[in-house]
Amino acid sequence: MALFDDTLIEEITTLLQQRHHTLAGALAISVRPLLEGEASPLRRDLWLLIGIANGEFKRSRETVREAELALARVQELLLGNALHSRALFPDNFWQTDIGILFSRVRWWISVDDLITISNAAALAFGSNTQANRMRIVRAIDNGILESFPDPSVANPQQNKRVLRPQVERLRDQRGLPDVE
Which of the residues 65, 68, 132, 151 has an alpha carbon 20 to 30 A from that of 107? Predict the structure, then answer.
């Protein structure tokens, strides 16, 4: 039995339609309705993400790329704002169906690039100390690093993972001279 279905698509679409109506009303604009049988780009993205989360796709370079783009578009729709400032998902987001969907798809896309907080501390700062782990957690809290829960680890204190390329970028930026 599939973990996710069209119910989740309807839930996400409804959330975004409510936001759209608010913005359209404030801006006094209207949008062309879809033709009969026409799927919106959002629905196409969600079908792909749900198919991946349900295990219906085999990994290929092209599918991984499509999934990465679809995940980024849906995330931007959910978190984007007019000021283009970075918004973070609240911690309880990851316990919702949408959060679980995002987590599963991120793992499918980046399974080889997700590392623990301890590994990130050692990679970015040279050693896995409590202070360095706290620096990684602060980087997550400040939106410098993105974190994703590991669906295979039940303990919420130990299930956060970060993307290795983001940690490497953080490490490389540490070598830059401080601005005075």
Answer: 132
Q: Tell me if 79 sits within 8 A of 52, measured CB to CB.
A: no
Q: 10 Å Cβ neighbour count for 122?
A: 18
Q: pLDDT tens across 84-110, in order?
A: 777 888 878 888 999 999 999 999 999
Cα–Cα distance for residue pair 96/102, rounded to 1 Å: 10
Which strands, in side-by-side order, build the sheet including 114-116?
114-116, 160-163, 147-149
Rounded CA-CA distance 82/26 in Å is: 13
Contact 133, 144 (CB under 8 A): no
- The closest alpha carbon to 78, from 86, 178, 147, belongs to 86
